[in-house]
Specification:
Length: about 325
């Protein structure tokens, strides 16, 4: 990665059920969530994420334009530099802020003891390490563990999910304790991906004791099938009966699901005065990154069904080392 690029990871912790939709499908579930092609693990497209962040940024800057959202969208030089010009001027320059698809990091699964546990796997952690190297996070104090099928690695002896015989029961499956992941993985994720506000102190403490590492195949099963499937209907206003063809099934990711995305800030391609490509100072990569850092809200609404309270995610932005 070029030295003048500022990089970071953006953590997204689902507070309510989340539907990053993939459109309609022909299977039993009419509206499935978006999934990676090669793993079938849930993902949030970078294009959706960038649109949500642009909207949050526009809300922050609209006071400078008398609350006029359209004028803010068209005239704000910081919005233009980071996310690109408005649609009608899209051909003038590209935005300097890049976001990858948000990747699944830890998935919540029902547990016989401890209510639920977050699960992850070596493949996810290996990918995280590569991404951290890309973002120049420096040395990481944990290694990717090896886990056999039907085995589980716990973060510590006081994991609340343990039952008799050194086993863990997740959904209808029993996993035998194979050892400890020494707690460093859970601690690192809690300190860099989960929100750092005081309201999340208990969540970070719980995460440190409840992050389980499973075999890739065991994790894959939960990531594909332990989602929520809700039946939804539309009612006829007069008869209060279900409208024809108004019954459909929608898939949601459960609350507590944890994602991360990479954030890369380049030098702006448009000038700071908003007049491209004439006079004015182009914003540097650090300035572009600050646009996101200063406007990122503590909670973002991602995906569909905002009006029924879906998709609220707590955020955390952790910058890599650039010294």
């Amino acid at each position: 990665m070029p030295e003048n690029v500022v990089s970071a990871i953006l953590g997204l912790h689902a507070q309510t059920s989340l539907h990053p939709g993939a459109g309609t499908a022909l299977g039993i579930v009419d509206l499935p969530v978006q999934r990676e092609r090669h793993t079938r693990w849930p993902t949030i497209p970078g294009s959706s994420l960038k649109g949500v962040l642009r909207d949050a940024c526009r809300e922050r800057y609209k006071t400078e334009y008398a609350g006029d959202r359209q004028r803010t969208n068209q005239e704000s030089p910081r919005l233009r530099a980071a996310f690109g010009p408005h649609t009608e001027a899209a051909g003038e320059s590209a935005g300097a802020l890049s976001l990858t698809d948000a990747r699944l990091l830890a998935f919540p699964v029902r547990s016989l003891r401890g209510v639920f546990a977050w699960v992850t796997c070596p493949a996810v952690l290996d990918r995280l390490r590569r991404d951290l190297a890309l973002c120049r996070f420096g040395s990481i104090d944990w290694q990717v563990p090896l886990v056999e099928k039907n085995r589980v690695m716990l973060p510590s002896d006081d994991c609340p999910c343990l039952i008799e015989g050194g086993r863990v029961a997740l959904e209808e499956f029993l996993f035998v304790r194979a050892g400890d992941s020494d707690g460093l993985i859970a601690a690192w994720i809690a300190d860099h991906v989960l929100p750092d506000s005081a309201a999340f102190d208990a969540t970070r403490a719980r995460f440190r004791r409840s992050l389980l590492v499973l075999h890739d195949d065991d994790f894959d099963h939960f990531a594909q099938y332990a989602t929520e499937i809700n039946a939804r209907i539309g009612l006829d206003y007069e008869t209060k009966t279900v409208k024809g063809k108004a019954l459909f099934y929608e898939e949601y990711l459960p609350p507590e699901t944890l994602f991360y995305a990479l954030v890369l800030a380049n030098e702006a391609r448009a000038r700071a005065n908003g007049e491209h490509p004439s006079a004015g100072r182009a914003m540097g990569a650090a300035d572009v990154f600050d646009v996101l850092r200063e406007t990122l809200p503590e909670v973002l609404q991602v995906g569909a069904d905002q009006s029924i309270g879906k998709g609220y995610c707590a955020t955390r932005l952790a910058r890599g080392r650039h010294d």
